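Appendix B, Record 12. Input sequence as logged:
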Amino acid sequence: MRTLYLLRHAKSSWKDDSLRDFDRPLKGRGRKAAEQMGQVLAEEKLKSPLVISSPAVRARETTDLVLESAGFKVKPQFEERIYEAEVRTLLEVVESIPDSADTVIMVGHNPGFENLLSYLTGDNRHMSTCALAKIEFDVASWSELSEDSGRLEMFVTPKDLED
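Logged structural output:
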């Protein structure tokens, strides 16, 4: 059994139009959403998940806030291929995960994450900023993933967490 969490980065700021897309930080609302999603992941009671994130500033900040809020004491890996990736590239990243990792949290961007979710589960969902999808696979190795091989077990957006 393998579990993949897809987490889209939280809401970013467009305030400084001199910044490259890669360098845009989170805005206040995004920071709050990332902390809330960290609490959702804390409830999952994961034991040392492997965390792989896009190196873009907004994804790094999301990753840091989520890990802190969840209480995970793991060091994330930053994978350049995730930034602006299409499904084929994202699949290559997932398929290269060491089999010693049963549970992985991947932090990245749309449209790639929406398309990957659809490819792996057949479930077409809009992944708003900071949306979290939990996908389970009955495979022995990450390299065995294929179209519709996963089951969407959970899908949460920041809007779902509003009081």
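Helices lie at 28-43, 57-70, 87-95, 112-121.
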